[in-house]
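Lab notebook, bench 4. Continuing the backlog of folding jobs that were queued last week. Each job is logged with the same field layout so the records can be merged later without manual cleanup. Today's entry covers GapR-like DNA-binding domain-containing protein, a 78-residue chain. Filled in by technician R.K.

JOB TYPE: sequence-to-structure
TARGET: GapR-like DNA-binding domain-containing protein
LENGTH: 78
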Amino acid sequence: MAESADDRLRLLIERIERLEEEKKGIADDIRDVYLEAKAVGYDPKIMRQIVRLRKMKPDDRSEQDMLLETYKNALGMA
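JOB STATUS: finished
OUTPUT FIELD FOLLOWS
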């Protein structure tokens, strides 16, 4: 017997709700790791930047670095 559209929708919504709960749990775990790092003297703000940079492709990261240097030079910050 085929499930109705209402049942299918309900199941999809329930899956999304479960995944949202898992996502919240993972976000809490990540926050705890940053708090642990801060407690031993690391700077969580810098760690977040490093994580973001490590996700980037090397070429994209190099391009961003070049643009940042160009902007800093233009503003007399170098």
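OBSERVATION: The CA atoms of residues 48 and 56 lie 13 Å apart.
SIGNED: R.K.
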